[in-house]
Amino acid sequence: MSSAKVRKWLTYHDRELIEYALNEGYELKKIADTIGKTLGCITLELRRAGGRDQYSAEKAQRMADERLHERNSKGIQVRAETKQKQRLAEEQERNRKRLDRMRELDAIIAQNEKRQLKLPLDEKPMPKQRIEPIPAAPLTNSLEERVEALEGQLELLYEEIKSIRRDHEAYFN
């Protein structure tokens, strides 16, 4: 047998061969060479399954199946936790972008409130318009609702500015 042995899981057939060889009194090195496994693999198998005197292929296979199931269960749980963390990170990123957009809209609205239309000094004063107050965006609602409210306010402000400009142009032209 070559010195470079493949280290892979033992099959039930391998475990039956180990049990038979142990009962017949074979050395561990001879067993390893016969089934094509390393000596360390055979030693680990014996340590896990009760030792040289109490080794049972059936018991060893049952224990190996339990370890495999446990490993797979942990893997599934880890993948689920990773996906959950990824979804949370994506949601946080979306909320951060919404918050940035909301701040941008707040800044635009604040600029529009401070901005005054500069009219040329003329004998005729411009007629006063009744401007309806725009309700403030509620602070207690969700971030999405606040962004929508601010976008609605911005749209109303733009319409109001267009209307004032039209009236201004019509009055002074």
Question: Would you summarize the structure shown here?
Answer:
This protein has five helices and no strands. The chain is an all-alpha fold and 173 residues long.
Number of strand elements: 0
Shape: rod-shaped
Helical amount: 55-70%
What's the overall average pLDDT, rounded?
Answer: 77
What this model shows, in words?
The chain has 173 residues and is an all-alpha fold. It has a domain at 75-172. It is built from five helices and no strands. It starts with 11 loop residues before the first helix and ends with a helix.
Question: Notable features of this structure?
Answer:
single chain, mainly alpha, 5 helices, rod-shaped
Topology overview:
Blueprint: H1 12-24, H2 28-35, H3 39-48, H4 57-114, H5 143-172
